[in-house]
Amino acid sequence: MSSSSSTPNSTTRFRDDLFCFYGDRMQVHTSWTNCNPGRRFMSCPNYGSNRRCRKFKFLDVELPNEYYKDLMFQNHMQLRKLERDNQLEHCKDYT
Ligand SMILES: [Zn+2]
Asked: 17, 41, 46, 84: which could form a disulfide with 53 (CB 3.0–4.6 Å)?
């Protein structure tokens, strides 16, 4: 028998974060700004809309320095460019 120590409270605490004050389910996105490249965050689907919900939370820590941020951002832009080029050529093969 294995005696794995489970933490029952962590599940309920996480569920609190899944919904905003208005009861909307939070959505996970990845930020690809040059300030926070590749950084995941949760936000309300109404964030920035006229319902004025401002529930927003970063899931990942900030990258330690400008070098990493720049590297992540440049890699991402490169990848996006490649994906766009590929889609133009092989869009029929991938469906
Ligand atoms: Zn909301």
From this structure: 46
**Tokens encoding 16:** 């609190």
Contact assessment for residue 63 and residue 71, using Cβ atoms and an 8 Å cutoff: no
Name the token pair of 55: 């529930």
Q: Is the pTM of this model over 0.85?
A: no
At 92, list the tokens: 């029929």
Residue 28 Cα to ligand 1 middle (Å): 13
In tens, the pLDDT along 20-71 reads: 888 889 999 999 999 999 999 999 998 877 777 888 999 999 999 999 999 9
Q: What residues have their beta carbon closer than 5 A to ion ligand 1?
A: 20, 22, 24, 44, 46, 53
